[in-house]
Amino acid sequence: MVAYAWKKFKEGFNLNELVLSEDRGRVRVLTLNRPEVLNALNPAIVEALAERIEDVRNDSNVLALILTGSGRAFAAGADIGEMRKMTPLQGVEFSRRGHEVLGAMEDLDIPTIAAVNGYALGGGCEVALGCDWIYASAKARFGQPEVNLGLVPGFGGNSRLVRRVGVAWAKEIVTTGEPIDADTAVRIGLANRVFENSETLLAEAIAMGEKIATKGPVAVKFGKRLIQTSQDVDLQVANAYEQATFGTIFATEDRLEGKDAFLAKRDPNFKGR
Hints:
Blueprint: H1 2-10, H2 15-18, E1 19-24, E2 27-32, H3 43-57, E3 64-69, E4 73-75, H4 80-84, H5 88-106, E5 112-116, E6 119-121, H6 123-129, E7 133-137, E8 141-143, H7 157-165, H8 167-176, E9 180-181, H9 182-187, E10 193-195, H10 198-213, H11 217-230, H12 235-249, H13 253-264
Parallel strand pairs: 2-3, 3-5, 4-6, 5-7, 6-8, 7-10
Antiparallel strand pairs: 1-2, 8-9
Helix pairs in contact: 1-5, 3-5, 6-7, 7-8, 11-12
């Protein structure tokens, strides 16, 4: 019954148009594309994002991912009109699916950058938090305003936010519902950098993706995994995992190529193996 009802919420949408995909060399740019509703998140756009993430996972040519929004918002939250129609069971399913999709993005082997070009509120902020790091335009606004609707974050905002900014700031953002600006987001560790406008933001995000694409893909993958895993285990376990991974890297062709290129004073030609 829940699965049937969930399907109903996705009908009438062209998933390919809800999240646009473009390659800039070996950098994939995904754009949330419901500008008429500030890219509000509904079941259809969540499924569209899931499909795009799976495409990235299956394309070994893509070495970095940029996620942004069309128009003046990254994503201004969930589609309240559609959420109003959901039963409690459908609400659980919406939350569960959101967690699955953002978890899949988080688990990609390649770095993911959220280029937040405007409002990133509620589910939009949670989608940004699902990326490895966030770049913001000067007009970006972040927040978890769910309390204003009698709700709590449902796409991982509570868990990911506290890991990104710490307990005190997470509690203030979630319990007040008040948005913060881009400079504050950088100051508290929610975002990494602020750029003057959306055009510069996207260009700089892509440039960073291109820089990452020149690095050893295996080393990038394992570096991301080490940091991700280290958040959830004690220091001794994290250090043991790092030691084992360091040894594993020594078995790769890229390790030899990197050292040979350095000694020969030339650019490396990494193969990802």
